[in-house]
Design brief:
The protein is of the alpha/beta class. The protein has 13 helices and 12 strands.
């Protein structure tokens, strides 16, 4: 009798990595739950888990939008997973939808896609920064109304906003700095919990969090969302910033207290914002989110990695991550807080 194939549960739609999954299916089984074929709710998913429907499944891969099918992989959901589950592979660099601490307690490895997003996200970040810096939102509105160059106040040159602060000089943050340096900004500073090695600093100066807030003309938010970073930019933080500071966020919306950001934009303390992420996305509408209506907010609906090449590579990387566990018991890309726990 041939040995039974190991099975993986795939949550969320796959756009471009079908060939990779077909190859995967030659050696392993997978069960796919897609948004348009297997409509489910969190309650139904929990019921299926408790019924034993997914007993024996060794791992799970999930997409960011699959949260609509199951809800967050929080402590409650993870407690319902069968004992057979040994890994969860998330398709994205940010994995705040998965409670890695709760997973670790169950002996479940959590993986992400940490490197492929750097280039496209930093491209998007620079675009938003320049748009916010130059007040380009007003020009877009003007053209859309057929009122050429109407109500388009001047923006700023880099020499007028010379100090660039980076909150989180990781892979994306370093790419942002590299791409901004040719524009002529005078000084780059950053804050991480610990100072980086000189070669990783790329000419940036490490400063304390408070000094980053006080010195920066532009603050680039490039940190992951976790319980320690949620609302790290709150009223107390805004009070320490320069008048007219520009905020650019391509990380996660909830890193910033969004309601307070609205207040600060109205008062002029924050001169402009460039945003690719929102605190309560995807529930972002003209009716429930004032930010997207503001003329000094240059925003996109979380398009940082929305390219054919990046989506395909990320989807394929998730498969490779799962194969790492299935072949040798180790995910290829384990999330940072788990390193040293499993291997």
């Amino acid at each position: 009798m041939s040995e039974q194939k190991q099975t993986v549960l795939r949550l969320g739609d796959i756009k471009y990595a079908q060939d990779k999954w077909n190859t995967f299916g030659e050696t392993y089984n997978y069960i796919a739950i897609n948004s348009n074929e297997n409509v489910t709710t969190r309650a139904e998913f929990l019921k299926d888990l408790d019924s034993g429907k997914y007993d024996g499944i060794v791992g799970i891969t999930r997409t960011f939008p699959s949260v609509a099918l199951t809800g967050r992989f929080d402590e409650e959901l993870i407690s319902h997973l069968p004992e057979s589950i040994k890994f969860i592979c998330h398709n994205g660099a940010g994995y705040d939808q998965v409670d890695a601490v709760a997973a670790a307690k169950r002996g479940i490895q959590v993986g992400n896609v940490p490197h492929l997003v750097n280039d496209p996200t930093s491209d998007t970040h620079v675009f938003l920064l320049l748009g916010a810096l130059r007040n380009f939102k007003n020009g877009i509105i003007s053209l859309g109304k057929g009122e050429f160059n109407a109500n388009c106040p001047p923006g700023y040159d880099p020499v007028e906003k010379p100090v660039v602060g980076v909150l989180g000089l990781g892979g994306i943050g370093r790419d942002v700095v590299k791409k901004l340096q040719p524009f002529g900004f005078k000084k780059f500073i950053y804050h991480n919990r610990n100072r980086l090695s000189e070669d990783l600093e790329q000419g940036c100066e490490w400063v304390s969090f408070d000094d980053l807030l006080a010195q920066s003309d532009i603050i680039n938010v490039c940190i992951p969302l976790n319980p320690h970073t949620k609302h790290i930019l709150n009223k107390a933080a805004f009070d320490k910033m320069k008048q007219g500071v520009i905020i650019v966020n391509t990380a996660r919306g909830a890193v910033i207290d969004e309601a307070e950001l609205v207040n600060q934009l109205k008062s002029g303390k924050v001169g402009a914002a460039g945003l690719d992420v929102f605190e309560h996305e995807p529930n972002v509408t003209l009716e429930n989110n004032e930010l997207i209506k503001m003329r000094n907010v240059f925003a996109l609906p979380h398009q940082g990695t929305n390219t054919f090449n990046t989506i395909k590579k990320m989807e394929e990387d998730v498969v490779d991550n799962a194969l790492g566990y299935l072949t040798n018991g180790k995910l290829v890309n384990l999330v940072p807080e788990m390193k040293g726990t499993f291997y």
